[in-house]
Amino acid sequence: MTRLDRNFFCIPNGIGKCKHYTLSLQCMKSFSKTWREKLVYLASMLLNKAINRGKDIKAFTPKHILCIRQDEIGDMCYSLHVFTMLKQQFPDAKITLLCKPAAITLLNNNPNITHLTSNFGDLIHTYDIMIDLRGTWRSILFSLTHWPKVRLDRATVRFANSKAGKHTHEVLTNLQVVEPIIDKQNRNTSPQIFTSKPDKKKAEDFLIDNNIGAFVLLHIGARKTLRKWNQFAQLATYLKKQKNLNIVFTGDKYEVREIKKLQSTLAFETYSIAGFFNLTELSALAAMSKLYVGNESGPLHIAAVSGAKCIGLYGPGEPYVFYPWGNKSEVIHPILECNPCNQIHCVHPENPCINRIMLSEVIEKVERLLY
User: Fold this and answer.
1) Each residue of 294-344: pLDDT tens digit?
2) Confidence of residue 347 (pLDDT cuts 50, 70, 90)
3) How far, in Å, CA of 249 to CA of 270, rounded?
């Protein structure tokens, strides 16, 4: 999800809010990037108008539908209901999804998707409907050269929402993208991850082999350093000593060292699935947990969609739009005057927003969700 979603045609908050109110080189780079992204959105909107002009877009019965979601794991989690709606609306259509390689394991078991790829070169059909859930120059070029009968995109929806002063959650935004072609009875806001029997068995075997009873999943990592909370060791100690919960750390293979370092500071045994579980296996394990606590990152959204009770720890991210979805989730989010920022160059390096989250606040949320 991009920062330009906050206000479609507004100067980003980073500009003019650097220390001493001077324009730093970092802010200028952020400004340039934001306007490049806005040009992509503008091009996508104009292309939609050209393709859909004068058409009753609900009149088509498509044979082939292409969805493009070249984004991160969390973004994909909150797009999953789109594929369900499309399959319910067009049961005979073949649905192709183009996504990033990292997201493929999240979709492998999804019965609504006919073909899954991360390569534009694999797209060989003439697509009746194209749905661009992200918007890049590459996806726009593909639409231009393969001119579908109908095209729907995120840019048009985000522009309309921003113009109306709305900051819509990602789940609802993705519903709005496809709403023009979906009958009311087929619309839903319940993303679903499909786990297999082997996924569930691996999760169960992990718990049995390690003699793990009631447990909490903790994710200490995040793609951006400014999203990383610094008190997970204290939280793990509280959960173990006061709540008698086993601690299981999750993460990818790049977070193994960071997790081991934290584990070495604890005076009790903990467990880690980092680099050992894929995304659907994590979903299966999250559904078995008593609680999930993590920074704003893909695993948080996997856990939320899987039905786990979640506490999301947020720093520089935009409020509400990307909070964990569902009524089992709680969020702690100190919102400063510089929010949202580019999540790279902090104007409060001595005390970034994520570290303003107090351990006592997290414990309060734990107590609320566990009882």
Assistant:
1) 999 999 999 999 999 999 999 998 899 999 999 999 999 999 999 888 888
2) confident
3) 8
pLDDT digit string (tens) for 195-237?
999 999 999 999 999 999 999 999 999 999 999 999 999 999 9
CA atoms of 124 and 127, how far apart (whole Å): 9
* pTM (two decimals): 0.90
Residue among 9, 341, 37, 53 nearest 160 (CA): 9
Sign of CA dihedral 106, 112, 114, 117: negative
**Nearest CA-CA partner of 170 in 318, 349, 269:** 318
Across 228-263, b (16+ Cβ under 10 Å) vs e yields bbebbeebbbbbbeeeebbbbbbbbeebbeebeebb
CA distance 95 to 194: 16
The answer, yes or no, to whether the previous bond of 299 is cis (omega within 30 of 0) is no
How sure is the predictor about 16, in pLDDT bands with cuts at 50, 70 and 90?
Answer: very low
CA max distance for the chain: 68
Separation CA 1–CA 321 (nearest Å): 9
Domains for the chain: give ranges and CATH numbers: 3-186 (3.40.50.2000), 197-370 (3.40.50.2000)
Q: Would the CA dihedral through 169, 170, 175, 180 be positive or negative?
A: positive
